[in-house]
Amino acid sequence: MARFVYADNAATTPVSPTVFAAMKPFYTDLYGNPSSLYSVGREAKKHLELARADVAACLNAEPNEIFFTSGGSEADNWAIKGIAHQLAKKGKKHIITSKFEHHAVLHTCASLEKEGFSVTYLDVHADGLVRPEELEAAIREDTALVTVMYANNEIGTIQPVSEIGAICQKHGVLFHTDAVQAAGTLPVDVKEQHIDLLSLSAHKFHGPKGVGALFIRKGISLPNLVDGGAQERGRRAGTENVAGIVGLSVALKEACATMAERAKRLTAMRDRLIDGALQIERTRLNGDRTKRLPGNVNLCFEGIEGESLLLLLDLNGVCGSSGSACTSGSLDPSHVLLAIGLPHEIAHGSLRLSFSDQNTEEDVDYILEVLPGIVERLRSMSPLWEEIVNGQKAD
Amino acid sequence: MAYSEKVMDHFANPRNVGEMKDPSGVGEVGNSRCGDIMRMYIKVEGDTITDVKFKTFGCGAAIATSSMATELIKGKTIEDALKLTNQAVMEALDGLPPVKVHCSVLAEQAIKAAVADYYKRQGIDPTPLVGELAECEECACGLHE
Hints:
The complex is a heterodimer.
Chain A: E1 5-6, H1 17-23, H2 25-28, H3 39-59, E2 66-69, H4 72-88, E3 94-98, H5 103-114, E4 118-122, H6 132-138, E5 143-147, H7 161-171, E6 174-178, E7 197-201, E8 212-216, H8 231-234, H9 242-257, H10 259-277, E9 283-285, E10 296-301, H11 306-315, E11 318-319, H12 325-328, H13 335-339, H14 344-347, E12 350-354, H15 361-380, H16 383-394
Helix pairs in contact in A: 1-9, 3-9, 4-5, 10-15, 11-15
Chain B: H1 5-12, E1 25-31, E2 36-45, E3 48-57, H2 60-73, H3 78-83, H4 86-92, H5 101-121, H6 127-130
Antiparallel strand pairs in B: 1-2, 2-3
């Protein structure tokens, strides 16, 4: 019996009903421009600042350290380009990042390299984790910024952010983390974890698309990315997306309030799916088994290609994603899978399934019911699988 | 990127998929590094291709183009099969997204490779008849960019 299972929550999540309800009035009744003097403007401004305080509370930050953006990519661009350009004035032109960051970070770093900045790309090892000691060894006199993601978007591995924060503090280097996958899912405490800048995006935790935030520790100055009006205390121009910002704050509050309970439930579902899927021969789990996001499963099935796997899953009502070249729109498979040392032919056969609060145990049952048959079907028509099996016999 | 209904039909219900006992010729193109391998088996009687089978490792378009290509050459003469272009495979599928055009090229090449193998087995040099088969170390897709 076919069922619809949305298991691509790392890509985006549906807006929750409470979030949607909280947003609506700001489109129709409280539509005022927060910069305006009259009542509907003042009312919008009031809610904007309440949202800011709520977001700050979730991160243990101060409200005036939160700046709303158009999303995670803008926040990453602003943080990295801003700090790079600011500290270049003091001769610091070196950035440390990892090989498997989101493209919003990697392509920003590449663009800075073209401007003459130097960037160190840390290895992430087979378990999908950055080694703090390697990071510390990479710090130089002229290092301006370390930018390492909180949790990886493809394989879900959780980086040692607190250790990295402590190392950066010790060496007087600023630390930015792309927490787009982590915010609302993992505890964040910018003070305790010595995080100087942090990016997040609302649509990853049941908020709306097109709105995010950058936390900038008080006292850190960086040039604007978006120039114009004096919104966001003169640091990010553009009339505020009030409904979106309210949606972001309600979603984050909701996610943080239910975090522990949800993590427990999703971890159990995740582990059951991993165990079940690993029953399929020549299947591997990508990324560390335990240091991973509660809802993230990332597998490689030898001998098959990810896009055809996704299409057959979709025909069975299951939405997932893959790091195969065919789904990345390039000739190479996912940079994340290559960074953890997978050969191309195996990386082509990857599948990411990611759960949110809206998934159930029945979803896991259903995936485990259809997945083995789909893999088997593709393998039966794959000359590569035939080679693998024949090679195995020859061994 | 969206596939046409015909591509989805040939992907979900591939024609002539499988292996062949005692084929007259077998051709394999593509490589695992790029994520596409097509293998075609042909049975030739007289100068007619009486049966075709394929096995493909690859994306939806790779499977669909393999399937369509086998349908287009089954029952045809070798001469006609060699005239099949990737363009014809694409048209028969109501088009392919631009990034998937290389799959149709692979399908064309796979047929040529199978026919070349048939000629070789007959002790005939295939090159003047089939033409140079694209050989590519890195990636068949790179040839046609």
